[in-house]
Amino acid sequence: MFNAIRRWGIAFIVVSAIAVAPVAYGSHGSQPNRLAGQIGEVALDENVLATPDLIRAFVPTGSKSHRCLVTFAESTIADVLGPAPFCGPRTVGGVDGVLITIHLDDEVADLYLSLTVFQQFSKSYGSPMLYRGT
Questions:
Q1: Which comes out higher in pLDDT, residue 82 or 41?
Q2: Which residues is 100 bridged to in the sheet?
Q3: Helix/strand/coil for 42
Q4: For a pLDDT cut of 90, what percent of the chain falls above it?
Q5: Which residue ranges make up each domain of the chain?
Q6: How far apart are CA 104 and CA 10, in angstroms?
Q7: Per-residue pLDDT tens for 7-24?
Q8: Is 111 helix (H, G, I), strand (E, B) or coil?
Q9: Cα 120 to chain center, whole Å?
Q10: Is the dihedral of CA 42, 75, 90, 56 positive or negative?
Q11: DSSP letter assigned to residue 106
Q12: CB count in 10 Å sphere of residue 77
């Protein structure tokens, strides 16, 4: 009888520890409990070329989060892509979103570039536009 009580007691402690650990360590305290955001696809063309070898595209997302990620999906210019793309939060005309910056190795005239984009707490991914700010 004592062994059965002991086993149930240990099982209760283990289950309680598993249930409490995400609550104690899972939240950062600085972010409210909201949806993590969604992943989107953005297609860029020559309208987002700041210079013939520099892409600066603002994508409205409704988020101010610094946590963003951009990866290449498809392109007509795969041989002139430079290093990895950069992303960061910006607000343009009162709209929050993500700025995507890509340095190209060579100048391009006919551009098609599909990107996979993520920004934490994004609501949607709008049409990209040329970003002229700093």
A1: 41
A2: 57, 87
A3: strand
A4: 53
A5: 39-130
A6: 60
A7: 676 666 666 656 554 444
A8: coil
A9: 5
A10: negative
A11: S
A12: 15
Mean pLDDT within 44-72: 94
Closest CA to 37 of 12, 69, 5, 13: 69
Give the tokens for residue 33.
């409990």
Write out the E strands in 67-123: 68-75, 86-92, 95-103, 112-119
CA pair distance 114, 111, nearest whole angstrom: 10
Could you tell me the two tokens for 123? 């609501």
State the CB neighbour count (10 A cutoff) for residue 120. 19
Cα separations in angstroms, 50 against 8, 29, 96? 67, 39, 20
pLDDT for 26: 45
- The H helix count followed by the E strand count for the chain is 1, 8
- Longest pairwise C-alpha distance within the chain: 82
